Amino acid sequence: MIKPGDTLPEVSFSQLTSDGMKNPSTADIFKGKKVVLFAVPGAFTPTCSESHLPGYIALADQIKAKGVDSIVCTSMNDAFVMAAWAETQNSEEITFLADGGGAFHKATGLTMDTGDFGGVRSQRYAMIVDDGKVTLLNVEPPKSFEVSKAETILAAL
């Protein structure tokens, strides 16, 4: 599993924008920037939609005031699902990146097998990335939601 001090792997994500499908790379997203990246096991799932994402939306201004250039949410959903989820959440402050095939999560060792719930998914986590290097990584134990909360990351900045 990736750890603080490691550089993120070079992969591409999918992002559905008003200009169509984009495929930003890790370098496009993280190079020369301070980024808070958080991941959810699945868009539209209860904890993700009712707590995890809303926390980052509510605290986005305070997080960015700490020198963060962008807040990114990723999941092993496709770009269409991520765009639909973003639209339902009124979340202009957050960048949504799809890792539908799991290239990023497999390369970082941040996957989990949920069996019949949805198969291989991203673990729930949050990280602070400075110029492509992980400076903080908080991975939730199964069925937990504490260390990846927006409040926890804000306190760590």
Automatic annotation (TrEMBL):
Q: Which domain of life is it from?
A: Bacteria
Catalytic residues, per the record, are: 48 (cysteine sulfenic acid (-soh) intermediate)
Catalytic EC class = oxidoreductase
Q: Which UniProt keywords apply?
A: Antioxidant, Oxidoreductase, Peroxidase, Redox-active center
Alphabetical list of SUPFAM superfamilies matching this protein: Thioredoxin-like
Q: Name one GO cellular component term.
A: cytoplasm
* Pfam families reported in the protein's UniProt record: Redoxin
Q: Which InterPro entries match?
A: PRX5-like (IPR037944), Redoxin (IPR013740), Thioredoxin-like_sf (IPR036249), Thioredoxin_domain (IPR013766)
Q: Does the keyword Oxidoreductase apply?
A: yes
- Give the enzyme's EC designation: 1.11.1.27
Q: Which family does it belong to?
A: Belongs to the peroxiredoxin family. Prx5 subfamily.
The protein's name in its UniProt record: Glutathione-dependent peroxiredoxin
Please name the source species.
Alkalimonas amylolytica
